Amino acid sequence: ALCPDALGACVAGHRSAEPGHAAAVAHLGLRPLVDLELRLGEGTGALLALPLVQGAVRVLHEVATFDSAGVSEKDAGA
């Protein structure tokens, strides 16, 4: 059994071409990041999705917000 609290930290890296995988992902309520029709069974889809997850983490932690960048309102001339 999977701890329900763990699902918040789960990412479905890809959608496998295997029918059982689609059922498992749907049951967990996850949305795969990519669908490359892989059925290699070696974690290749997860490995290919890893840069997407890493990039998302970097955006969340490193990209300035409007407040931190000192943007107070939209420039009327833009």
Automatic annotation (TrEMBL):
It is an enzyme of class 2 (transferase). InterPro entries: Nict_dMeBzImd_PRibTrfase, Nict_dMeBzImd_PRibTrfase_N, Nict_dMeBzImd_PRibTrfase_sf. Coiled coil: none annotated. Pathway: Nucleoside biosynthesis; alpha-ribazole biosynthesis; alpha-ribazole from 5,6-dimethylbenzimidazole: step 1/2. Its EC number is 2.4.2.21. The keyword Transmembrane helix does not apply. It comes from the Bacteria. The keyword Transferase applies. Keywords: Cobalamin biosynthesis, Glycosyltransferase, Transferase. It catalyses: 5,6-dimethylbenzimidazole + nicotinate beta-D-ribonucleotide = alpha-ribazole 5'-phosphate + nicotinate + H(+). GO terms for molecular function: nicotinate-nucleotide-dimethylbenzimidazole phosphoribosyltransferase activity. GO terms for biological process: cobalamin biosynthetic process. Belongs to the CobT family. This is Nicotinate-nucleotide--dimethylbenzimidazole phosphoribosyltransferase. It comes from Actinomadura harenae.
